[in-house]
């Protein structure tokens, strides 16, 4: 595997932190042992954690007002992969990349797959894009794509999704994520039921093109760009469509795609209960689909989501494997720094959820000991598992402190010199 960051630098940085990490690890280990937990087991568990990085997240995002490009942004999918390789090399938690087509459409799919492999990466779910018009495209998605009243527009959108599956097969992916911005901006603009019927008809064609070992993830989103009625606006609609389509169709939960104050962990529990939890787009939000860094606003919510995932894993066993992906827009930070930090925050919630004594919690719930049950979750959430995360990274060959190591490497300066800014060069989006 090619190391993008000099392996010697990583080793030096780790050596500098070694004594401090050992001391912190032993201290935490003692505390956890008194709670009946083995720190080495938890570290081994942390080492199994993986979350996919979105290819579009490697570039600077933007809002509908402006986009302020960053230095050394990747200009094509190969440069995006190189940045993703840095993230995985230092965190050891992001072995796969979720590409977006046509933004990342390769001229040679096998070359793309081999390049990823050489960088120690593979491909996770592929994402289709029928929420914007592409150059040279015959039909416009201005009034919808999979739900369009025009059969020609629907056919073009279906064909694009099937092409995404074909490229996905060639690069080793096993899932297609479909998000459409389709909907209405005015009451009366379209027939609410008719739009969903057309969506299902289109999705049936896409579903029929799925290889046997593939899944299609339906991503819902409350609003934007349709500000009155989004066709796939909520988990109920997503669940109904996934059920209608068949066993390969599952629901994808993007943490930012809900009304404020929605109990997302309960949605997770419901979808897991009925076998329809396909995966996640992790990010954080304060007001809407803010696409802020995971765990930056409401880390307790992230923990509660993982608490439900731990419960589901215990009930369902090995078969329970939702896909984890980050989906963030980085407007004011270095995307590599944000993605490394976010992968760590999701991994933190995963490890914290493993601290919960589920048998004891079940007993407290049985006896209606409300306060102690709540404290059981809080105790896990309050535990700073940073030494476990750092040790997991070191034991997996990563960096004890990815951010410090990345900054010491000078990677951004190096690629800034190699990748001069070109207007509109980076295909970054907010999905
Ligand atoms: Mn998303």
UniProtKB/TrEMBL annotation:
**Sample GO molecular function, one term:** metal ion binding
Superkingdom of origin: Bacteria
Domain annotation Xylose isomerase-like TIM barrel: ranges? 101-291
Q: Which UniProt keywords apply?
A: Isomerase, Manganese, Metal-binding
Q: Which Pfam families match?
A: AP_endonuc_2 (PF01261)
Extract the InterPro entries matched here.
Answer: L-rhamnose_isomerase (IPR050337), L_rhamnose_iso (IPR013451), Xyl_isomerase-like_sf (IPR036237), Xyl_isomerase-like_TIM-brl (IPR013022)
Q: What is the name of this protein?
A: L-rhamnose catabolism isomerase
Q: Which organism is it from?
A: Massilia oculi
């Amino acid at each position: 595997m090619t190391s993008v960051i000099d392996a010697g630098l990583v080793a030096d940085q780790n050596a500098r932190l070694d004594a401090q990490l050992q001391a912190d690890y032993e201290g935490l280990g003692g505390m956890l042992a008194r709670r009946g937990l083995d720190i080495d087991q938890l570290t081994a568990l942390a080492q199994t954690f993986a979350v996919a990085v979105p290819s579009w997240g490697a570039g600077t995002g933007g809002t509908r007002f402006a986009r302020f490009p960053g230095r050394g942004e990747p200009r094509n999918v190969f440069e995006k992969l190189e940045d993703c390789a840095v993230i995985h090399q230092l965190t050891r938690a992001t072995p796969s990349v979720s590409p977006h087509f046509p933004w990342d459409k390769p001229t040679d799919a096998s070359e793309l797959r081999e390049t990823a492999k050489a960088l120690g990466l593979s491909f996770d779910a592929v994402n289709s894009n029928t929420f914007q018009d592409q150059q040279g495209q015959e039909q416009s998605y201005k009034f919808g794509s999979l739900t369009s009243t025009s059969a020609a527009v629907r056919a073009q959108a279906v064909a694009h999704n099937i092409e995404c599956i074909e490229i996905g097969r060639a690069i080793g992916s096993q899932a297609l994520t479909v998000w459409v911005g389709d909907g209405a901006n005015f009451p009366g603009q379209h027939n609410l039921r008719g739009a969903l019927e057309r969506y299902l008809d289109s999705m049936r064609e896409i579903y029929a093109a799925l290889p046997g070992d593939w899944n299609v993830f339906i991503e819902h989103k409350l609003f934007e760009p349709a500000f009155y009625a989004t066709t796939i606006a909520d988990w109920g609609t997503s669940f109904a469509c996934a059920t209608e389509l068949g066993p390969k169709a599952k629901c994808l939960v993007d943490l930012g795609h809900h009304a404020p104050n929605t109990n997302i962990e309960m949605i997770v529990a419901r979808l897991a209960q009925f076998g329809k939890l396909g995966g996640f787009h992790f990010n954080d939000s304060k007001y809407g689909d803010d696409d802020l860094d995971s765990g930056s606003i409401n880390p307790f919510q992230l923990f509660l989501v993982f608490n439900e995932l731990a419960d589901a894993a215990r009930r369902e066993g090995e078969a329970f494997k939702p896909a984890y992906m980050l989906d963030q827009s980085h407007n004011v930070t270095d995307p590599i720094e944000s993605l490394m930090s976010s992968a760590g925050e999701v991994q933190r919630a995963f490890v914290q959820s493993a601290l919960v004594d589920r048998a004891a919690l079940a007993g407290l719930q049985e006896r209606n000991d409300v306060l102690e049950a709540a404290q059981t979750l809080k105790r896990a959430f309050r535990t700073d598992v940073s030494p476990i995360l750092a040790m997991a990274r070191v034991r997996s060959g990563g960096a004890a402190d990815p951010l410090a190591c990345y900054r010491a490497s000078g990677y951004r300066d190096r690629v800034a010199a190699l990748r001069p800014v070109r207007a509109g060069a980076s295909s970054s989006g907010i999905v």
